[in-house]
Structures are given as structure tokens and as C-alpha cells.
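re: ur question from earlier - yeah i can do the single chain one, its not a big deal. heres the input i used so u can compare w yours
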Amino acid sequence: MRIRIDGTYAELAYTIHKLRTILPVGSISPILPRYKRPHRWRVFINTAPKRGARKWIT
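and the output i got, formated as C-alpha cells:
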């Protein structure tokens, strides 16, 4: 799953920290500035599948 987060630098840092405690994070993109919006940043987070999770067989 890919999650996009927009906000100030402090908001991004807080949200990334909280997401890492809840979800297994695969990768985090570089924090990029938003154009035409001062002091706003954007980051993409890719979550990884849980370790040892199996697919359901139906």
C-alpha cells in the first residue's frame, strides 16, 4: 500500500514515527517541497506485507 502525506516538516516526522509503530514500513521517499505552498512538504510511504503472513486459501 502506498500512503501520501502532506504537511509541515514536524507533522511529517510525527506521522511517520506513528505509522512505523503500527505498520511495517518498506520504504520512505525523500521529503519533497510542495510547489506554491510555503513550508509544506510531501512524502510517500510504501508499506510492506507483515512478516510471516500467509495468503488466505479459499
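The longest helix spans residues 9-22. not sure if urs matches, ping me
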